[in-house]
Amino acid sequence: MNRTKNAAFAYSYLLPSAILTIVLGIYPIAWAFRYMFYNYKGYGTARFIGLDNFSRILQDAQFWDSVVNTFVYAGGKLLLSIPLSLLLAAVLNRKIRGRQLLRAVFFMPTIISTAVMAVVFFTIFNSYNGILNQFLIKFNLSSSGIDWLGPKYAMLTVILVAVWGAVGNYMLLFLAGLQNIPEDVYESSALDGANKIQQFRFITLPMLGPVLQMVIMLAIINALKGYESIMVLTEGGPAGKTEVMFLYLYKLFFPVGGSSAATQVQEFGYGSAVAFVSALIVGMISVVYFYASRRMNRMD
Fold it and tell me: What are the DSSP E strand ranges found in the chain?
């Protein structure tokens, strides 16, 4: 009888979460899965068209350009954010004055809204009257400023903004991992003559392996799915140079003025098919990474 009561008590706590998961998680997926096979603009009657939406994806150069942009964006973000956050964590794990304050400062970008962060960086990188260009011109580092959001530097700019927003989060995870490494391991290696670089190479990195794998996994998924700051900074421009996969998808559901989307009308049916293919690409990369991680663990 008590077991029945306990079970009923537990289910009563789980029920609200289960309902929210079904309404906000499973139902939208089922909705999108259905309309992948329809020509549906978000109003009127949906017309069944079979696999035509997927045929259109294969011929959609703008979508595949956005896929390439996504890989460039994700690769740049990973190459910069992971080493930088690891370096910051290693430095702030040492007993230096003010390290708690510095940890809070570097973590702060994580709690700021992505849209607000992008607006702030827009005022910094604005090509005409941005703070950075004014600084460069004032100190004669550039005669007329640099077009940070133009075709040449736009991708680099959005990557730098993304790195700034991600480093604090990954740094915190690395810090948690570093603090679980026993201090006496370093003391023993120092007695054996190991210097700081050798300690980092042969002690810190191997013992930080599981955390590193988790951070890389999170970084890959977040980088592939990220688009919010790009939408505020460039809207995917100029000429689609910074339009990533999920930004292209967003525009199909919510067209924005002046965008480079293929259409300025809602494309719920085609957008659902693009969402499925995009999720498939992210899932495949995740599986490849999991497989590579397991192989590396076995080699260890």
Answer: 38-39, 47-48
Main-chain phi, psi angles of 47, to 5 degrees: -110, 125
Q: CA 258, CA 248: separation in Å to the nearest integer? A: 13
State pTM to two decimals.
0.84
Cα–Cα distance for residue pair 296/131, rounded to 1 Å = 45
Q: Cα–Cα distance between 249 and 259 in angstroms, integer? A: 12
Res 280: pLDDT: 92
CA 184 to chain centre: 36
| Residue that has been written with the tokens 């004014």 in this structure | 134
- Overall size of the chain counted in residues: 300
Burial 66-101 (b: 16+ CB within 10 A, else e): bbebbebbbebbbebbbebbbebbbebbeeeeeeee
Burial 21-53 (b: 16+ CB within 10 A, else e): eeeeeeeeeeebeebbbbbbbeeeebeebeebb
Q: What is the pLDDT of residue 52?
A: 92
